[in-house]
Amino acid sequence: xxxxxxxxxxxxxxxxxxxxxxxxxxxxxxxxxxxxxxxxxxxxxxxxxxxxxxxxxxxxxxxxxxxxxxxxxxxxxxxxxxxxxxxxxxxxxxxxxxxxxxxxxxxxxxxxxxxxxxxxxxxxxxxxxxxxxxxxxxxxxxxxxxxxxxxxxxxxxxxxxxxxxxxxxxxxxxxxxxxxxxxxxxxxxxx
Length: 191
What we know:
The protein has 3 domains: 12-79, 2,3-Dihydroxybiphenyl 1,2-Dioxygenase, domain 1 (Roll); 93-151, 2,3-Dihydroxybiphenyl 1,2-Dioxygenase, domain 1 (Roll); 159-185, no CATH class. Helix content is 24%, strand content 27%. The chain has helices spanning 24-34, 101-113, 162-172, 176-185, and strands spanning 16-21, 38-45, 59-65, 71-76, 95-98, 119-125, 128-134, 140-145. The strands form 2 sheets. Strands 1-4-3-2 form a 4-stranded mixed sheet. A hairpin with a 5-residue loop joins strand 7 and strand 8. Helix 3 packs across helix 4. The longest helix is centred in the middle third of the chain and has 13 residues, at 101-113. The chain is globular and about 55 Å long. Keywords: Metal-binding. Pfam families: Glyoxalase.
């Protein structure tokens, strides 16, 4: 197997996530009022062949500031198209936004105040506390936080002990060498 980088990845995080809507005004209202993001850029995108971009010319492509120098974007597709199934391979199952603990409860209350049905918050084990709801496009969203007294970073918070990781990897791979290989690539929590 090829060696995986052991130090920091070359990426810093998300530049932007790009989703599809067929109702841009409703999407704008939702993300600015419910999630309190700021609309920061509006444009049209001309179609060009062989770039993997949407198959429509002159689409609206609007960007929202989701915090920490990261953007959330929406292309406005024509109405009446089939909706994507988030529970099939290749679909995006959901987007989880991290919310600092001191802002978590207030943001959930704001979401509810906008008449959005919220499931949670629920404890998911470890540092995870989450609340779930849908945007007007049917995209499942999660607000995630921690209730740990010393939270640390997001990535570090999901580190596991070797025993926990081994137990799970053994359900995926029958070969002990393959399990050991993947364990050697993971940063593990030492107890």
